[in-house]
Amino acid sequence: MKKIVNIFLFLVFLIIVAGCIMPSFLPKKIEIITTKEFNNPISEVFAEFNDLENYASWGLLINEDSVNTRINYFSPYKGAGSSLTWNNSKDHTIGKGEYKILTSKVNNYIKSQIIFVETGVVCIEDINFKSNEGVTRVSFHLKTDNFTYFTRIFAYLYSHKLEESLNKSFEKLTVLLQNGRSNKQLNEGDTEYLDFKGIQLLAIKNETSTNSFEVYKAMYKSLHEISNYLTDSLKFSHIDIKNPIIYYSTYDTVAKTAVFYSGYPVDLDSNIIPANNTMSILSLPAGKAITTPINEKVHNLFNARYILDKYAKENGIKLKNIYWEEYKDYPLSIDDDIKGKAFYLIAE
Length: 348
Known about the structure:
Layout: H1 2-21, E1 31-38, H2 42-50, H3 52-55, E2 70-74, E3 83-87, E4 96-105, E5 109-116, E6 121-132, E7 135-144, H4 152-179, E8 192-196, E9 199-209, H5 212-233, E10 245-252, E11 257-266, E12 279-284, E13 287-296, H6 303-314, E14 319-328, E15 338-346
Antiparallel strand pairs: 1-7, 2-3, 3-4, 4-5, 5-6, 6-7, 8-13, 9-11, 9-12, 10-11, 10-14, 13-15, 14-15
């Protein structure tokens, strides 16, 4: 029995000694150096790294669970000073963190910082871009500060996870660029997820029945009034006026009543003063959303809403009572097509 105990103690001693010696053979910090080539113009590739809305759709860790990962964006959204935070409460390997662009030189260089909150790891990225005959070469260098002696094992294991995630994100970016992000269109009836960063509207409140023609007439009248105010009184050019948005605060199919706000997006720092008591500034909050295209006649005005409701029900998605539609080429008559997108915020 004594011999067994001695053997056990000796093994424990060896394990302790190995644990003390092993870190000396491991790297002091996480450092990943890799290069990737894309068959796209340098301006397109650079925009994927420099525009955080683009980056969030493929970037390191963030894209691995797009349904459960909540992303918040912070101005200016592109270039130096822009940042985003992510949080996934269901997958702690993704966890929460912050990505911030520290330096940005157009089509040349980006320096950024990534903070993985739950592990306390802070990374600095140096990303260089070079173009040669239509092929863009991206050189990527990620590194951390030195870890303490006994945390080098953690650094060693975590570096493999980061490298694996980085390779996956580059694979996804390759597909996005091959398909052409700027040309991507959803087909009618299709639904996708997106991270909505929130907007501010100059809007007029409307109260009608759920009759699509009555809703159309009310929104048309309100949008016409706001458009005239922006161009005539505030001297906006038509180019500066963004696509109109209709936000529904109430849509009751039982009582057949609808309450909605018809308006145009305005910048948060524009300090626009509403023309009268009927106009107001309204904010739509940021959050995860689902969206589907709109391409309907006026009598099918609410078809996109039904598509999103059905999709959410079939896929077990809980929706907030925050629904809006964004139109382009807004119809001048009830015989014209209504084109745009419909959105629903998801309850997370």
